[in-house]
Design a protein that fits this description.
The complex is a heterotrimer of chains A (130), B (119) and C (102).
Chain A: E1 15-20, H1 29-42, E2 46-51, H2 79-82, E3 87-91, H3 92-97, E4 110-112, H4 114-122, E5 126-129
Parallel strand pairs in A: 1-2, 1-5, 2-3, 3-4
Chain B: E1 2-7, H1 16-29, E2 33-39, H2 60-71, E3 75-78, H3 79-84, E4 96-99, H4 102-110, E5 113-117
Parallel strand pairs in B: 1-2, 1-5, 2-3, 3-4
Chain C: E1 4-7, H1 16-22, E2 29-32, H2 48-51, E3 58-62, H3 63-68, E4 81-83, H4 85-94, E5 98-101
Parallel strand pairs in C: 1-2, 1-5, 2-3, 3-4
The chains are: A alpha/beta (130), B alpha/beta (119), C alpha/beta (102).
Chain lengths: 130, 119, 102
């Protein structure tokens, strides 16, 4: 039987890293990128979610979007835990450059330096950028 | 080598689809296998059969269709991204199919490499 | 495991090249494509970004993109290699994974 046909995926498990570099709302990449991550987790893959550069703004608290009539999707990041995506990282240098700390974030993350992010990237099987 | 190709932008506005096309064609000519080409975000517009660029310019929709026909590769358009942008089955150029995000994940799993072309 | 990084935006316009170079490990390759090829030019205000990493990273630029932009024959950064789409495919085959800095 095809690995992908059954409800329970029993094919190969690869390390997928999703690199989030864009802020939310100005473009669609953050929202549609998040949708891919959740699907990947449903395939039981080993998923890492990394927020670097302006990507750290995606998980900023207090997003209030009624004035621009766009869906506030920041609560959806809390679903990552429910999908067993536990490897969620934000880059220290990206946060600091933007005057942010973990207290500004809508979900708990592991904060890594850019060197550690580079090491993590190097260990992945598949890297996806939006 | 088995390749997954992800195209994040539509034809014409960005060069992403052009670069993806040339890369994919080169890979096929070298005998590599394309697991599938997956079109996401505005990349779904690459499937729009109504595209009608001037005759002295390339027609990326037609080029992708031709490549699929010549080499038998899969061109998959993400259903969620397509619905948002008004691309449905009636609008699909030859060789394109609408399917779910799982096809992108599968391309990553089955391929040796996944290459992203975007903005 | 050595990654291939691609950069497709001009370093005069976006931070993609510098963002890439902050996270690239020695022994990796960086390929400039599309508008990213402007980063291959010698002696610009941004050339140092690549020159500083030249001893640790292999840099490439996509020839057809340089030609398209009228940059054929313009001096490129020393040590940077011009390739075509076939060469792009080969680089992907040689690397462990590809990261596109969009």
């Amino acid at each position: 039987m095809n690995d992908f046909e059954d409800d329970e995926f029993d094919g190969p498990i690869k390390k997928f890293m999703y690199v989030n570099r864009k802020p939310p709302y100005g473009t669609v990449y953050a929202l549609e990128g998040l949708e891919v991550v959740l699907i990947t987790a449903a395939f039981d893959q080993d998923v890492s979610m990394v927020f670097v550069d302006d990507g750290v703004f995606q998980i900023k608290k207090d997003q209030e979007t009624s004035g621009i009539n766009m869906k506030n999707f920041s609560p959806t990041y809390r679903a990552l835990e429910g999908y067993e995506v536990e490897k969620v990282y934000a880059e220290k240098e990206s946060l600091e450059a933007r005057g942010m700390s973990r207290d500004d974030l809508v979900i708990p993350v592991e904060i890594l330096s850019s060197t550690e992010i580079a090491d993590l990237m190097d260990s992945q099987d598949v890297i996806v950028s939006f | 080598m088995k390749l997954g190709i992800l195209v994040n932008e539509g034809p014409f506005t960005h060069q992403a689809s052009d670069t993806a096309y040339h890369f994919t064609k080169a890979a096929l000519k070298k005998g590599h296998e394309i697991v599938r080409v997956f079109f996401y975000h505005d990349g779904v517009s690459n499937a729009n059969k109504l595209a009608d660029p001037p005759s002295d310019d390339r027609n990326l929709v037609a080029l992708w269709s031709s490549l699929a026909n010549e080499y038998g590769i899969e061109l998959i358009v993400c259903v969620a991204a397509a619905m948002r942008r008004g691309i449905n089955d009636d609008l699909l150029a030859k060789g394109f199919k609408i399917s779910g995000l799982g096809q992108l994940v599968e391309a990553g799993i089955l391929g040796d490499k996944l290459v992203t072309f975007g903005d | 495991m050595a990654l291939l990084h691609t950069v497709n935006k001009s370093p005069f316009d976006r931070n993609s090249l510098s963002d890439c170079l902050r996270r690239v490990k020695p022994g990796s390759s960086v390929l400039l494509i599309e508008d990213g090829v402007y980063g291959a030019l010698e002696e610009t205000s941004v050339s140092d970004q690549i020159v500083e990493h030249n001893d640790k990273i292999k840099f490439y630029a996509l020839g057809p993109d340089l030609s398209a932009r009228g940059l054929n024959g313009k001096p490129l950064i020393d040590g940077l290699t011009l390739i075509d789409y076939d060469g792009f495919v080969d680089l992907v085959e040689e690397c462990s994974s590809v990261q596109s800095w969009l």
